[in-house]
Write a structure and sequence with these properties.
There is one protein chain. By secondary structure, the chain is mostly beta strands. About 10% of the residues lie in helices and about 65% in strands. It contains 2 helices and 16 strands. The protein has a 16-stranded antiparallel sheet that branches. The chain starts with a helix and ends in a 9-residue tail after the last strand.
């Protein structure tokens, strides 16, 4: 979903930017021999959760064929079968101006979605295969400010986001977020915050955020970032690799034209809940190869008029769960892998 993509982008910029900020009061112990090291780990812990905000990120994903049910303005329609659902994603995060207490940056993103759908023609039993390619682009200008509140480290971020397709520029959106580091030591790290999303098509304008990581004595790590993911992790191969089991949220968004022979523009948004295994491996210190596989569950995919919202669809699909895999490579100088 477009809202989720924007959320992850802004929050990723927000937490990654803490590398340039030093604060005098927080919950981190002030021992001279380890305070700097722990602070760096807090930044890495936060930054590692936001893959889309890494300096460079490329992904390819494929979903196995699945059936779906559909409705048109509340009327039940014959179901169909999606035989191809492939996506390619590319994103970049670039710092423009750095200062001690603030940072100006930009984020650029591109996603292509290729589909093939078998549908039954109305009034017949004949099937027709529809093939389509959709392109979604977005960019944001982000201002991040570092401060403190109640003796805790706090980071604020405001962003101006524009998006569109390969044919037209479509939306301008505003985002504001704040994150506070509540706890940070060798075993447990915890943050909390919120985001306000000024987007006419958004499902909700306010999103609470909470992250929690705890290292158990047996080497397992509980890693929770709400509302995005819940994972149980384990470092392997001398910390060159990491295996994760859990669930994470993702989404798809793109614009549609000429659906009804008019100039009316539509938007499609789909929320995905991906459950399964993830493996990450460091290549040449700061490059990470990522492979994911499991089951994708999609509560709903909706087409709605551009000037309306996700809650007012003209067409809705409910896909069956399906197998998926994803492979990607990214440049992430704050990777937790290989860090002691």
């Amino acid at each position: 979903m477009n809202r989720i993509k924007s959320t992850m982008t802004v929050l990723g910029i927000l937490v990654m930017s803490t590398k340039g900020f030093s604060q005098v009061t927080d919950s981190i112990p002030k021992k001279a021999d380890d305070s700097l090291s722990i602070r760096k780990r807090v930044v890495a812990f936060a930054a590692d959760k936001f893959a889309i905000a890494r300096p460079l990120n490329f992904e390819f994903s494929n979903t196995a064929p699945y059936h779906y049910k559909s409705k048109n303005e509340g009327n039940i329609l014959p179901g169909g079968r999606l035989t191809r659902f492939q996506q390619t994603k590319l994103s970049a995060n670039i710092d423009l101006i750095k200062r001690k207490t603030w940072l100006l940056s930009t984020t650029l993103g591109y996603k292509s979605t290729s589909t093939a759908t078998e549908v039954v023609q109305t009034g017949t039993t004949a099937q027709t295969t529809l093939e389509n390619d959709y392109y979604y682009l977005f960019s944001s200008l982000n201002l991040t400010y570092f401060s403190s509140l109640f003796g805790k480290r706090v980071i604020y971020n405001s962003s101006l986001v524009v998006d569109g397709s390969d044919k037209h520029f479509e939306r301008i959106k505003g985002l504001f977020a704040g994150v506070m580091v509540l706890k940070a030591n060798q075993k447990t790290k915890m943050t909390a915050g919120f985001m306000v999303n000024i987007d006419p098509g958004a499902l909700t304008p306010f999103i609470p955020i909470f992250s929690y990581e705890h290292k158990f004595n047996n080497g397992l790590i509980a890693d929770i970032f709400l509302p995005r993911s819940i994972q149980l992790r384990k470092f392997v191969f001398n910390r060159n690799g990491r295996v994760s089991l859990g669930t994470e949220m993702d989404g798809t968004s793109f614009y549609l034209y000429n659906l009804d022979g008019t100039a009316q523009k539509y938007e499609y948004r789909q929320l995905d809940i991906n459950s399964g295994l993830t493996y990450e491996h460091v290549i040449a210190k700061h490059f990470m190869l990522t492979a994911k596989s499991g089951v994708k569950a999609t509560p709903a995919g909706r087409i709605f008029k551009k000037e309306e919202t996700f809650q007012d669809p003209v067409y809705q699909i409910t896909p069956d769960p399906a197998f998926y895999f994803n492979i990607g490579i990214s440049f992430n100088p704050f990777s937790l892998l290989r860090k002691n």
